[in-house]
Structures are given as structure tokens and as C-alpha cells.
Amino acid sequence: MAVSAGAPSVGDRGGLEEGEVAADDAGKDGEQDQERDEVQYRNSGVPLEEYELTRGDHRRQKQSEEISEWDRRQTEEDDAKCRADPERAERRRQAFKNVAKLMQSFKKADHEIMRWRVRLYCGHIIETQAHYTYTDPLSAGSYGRRCSECGEDRQTIVAFEPIGLRGEPPEPTEPKRSSPPKKPTRADLERRVKTLEKENERLRAKLSG
């Protein structure tokens, strides 16, 4: 399932703005394909060290900050309700526990994880990861994240490039071939004939009696 190169243009990128280039002009903004099996991984805004923010980047970062502020207010309200209602607090604790168990069940092997270098809105370049089937970190849902360099929350990804798989895939194993049936020896055949002759005589005697 090959995927053509090009920066995301719907939802996570919010359309093309001044300074952004459509997929047909991928060569102009440094986007290239790196292929693993049938998945083509995308670059955007490379080299990351020289990337300059666009109007679209500023807009998406503002949206991310607004969402973060809304989340903060909702969390504070929920915390206050839980402090006043121990049963509600217990239900929330159990819900978090169930989610944690579910996330553990989705754990993938190292060769199924693609590593990415991403430049955040704050300007720092960090590493992130996503399932190898995603062509870029934005498609995997990694829109905003905490910067490990400056500590700022909800920093949107403005440019990215693939690094490689977290681990090498295992070597394919060939199915074990079953041994061919052992050819009977002459002695085996003679014993079998004698057994059949005795069984034949027994049946004749039974019928005649």
C-alpha cells in the first residue's frame, strides 16, 4: 500500500498557507520518500534545523494552546468534584486503571515502531515514535506534545523526518519439513504378510464352524 509524498493538507495541517508548498512541489520544500516494505515515509520541512515557521504553524499552535487551556479547566473541575465525592473519585481511578491495562495490551514489538525526528513549534528538535504503518507522526495523532528540552506543553510538530525502526525485524523462519515416511524393510513386509495370513485363517475357521 504505497503512499505518495506530500505534507498533510487536511485536518492536522489546516490547508496550505503562505510559505507552505503542495505535494506536487515536494522537491521545493525538501520532502522525500523513504520506503519500508510498501509504506513510504514522508519528510516535511527538512532540514529541520533550518525550518522557518509559517502562518499555518502559528495558527495551529494557538489552537493547541486553547485546547490545552480547556483541558486544564476541565481537569480542575473534575478534581474538585472527585474531592467532594469519593465514589466518583474511585470510578475515575478505576477508569484510568482500565485504560492503562488496555494500552499495555497494545504494546508493539520494536520492529513495528518507527522513530521520528520532529521539530516543535518552540524550535527544539526531539525524537518521537509511532507505529510503522503511519507515513508520518501527524497521521499517528502526534500533533502536540511536551518539549523535553524546554518543558513547554502542547508544542505542535512543524517539521519531521523518519529515523528508522526501533529494532530490526526478525528473520523469517522456514516451516519445519516433516520427515518422509520410513520405507518398510523386507522383514517388515514378511511379518505383515504372516499376520494377514493368520487373520485370514482365523476368519475362515470362524465362518466354517
From TrEMBL:
The organism's place on the tree of life at top rank: Bacteria
UniProt-annotated stretches for the region Disordered: 1-90, 164-209
Biased composition (Basic and acidic residues): 25-40, 52-90, 185-209
Full protein name: Uncharacterized protein
Lineage, broadest ranks: Bacteria, Bacillati, Actinomycetota, Actinomycetes, Kitasatosporales
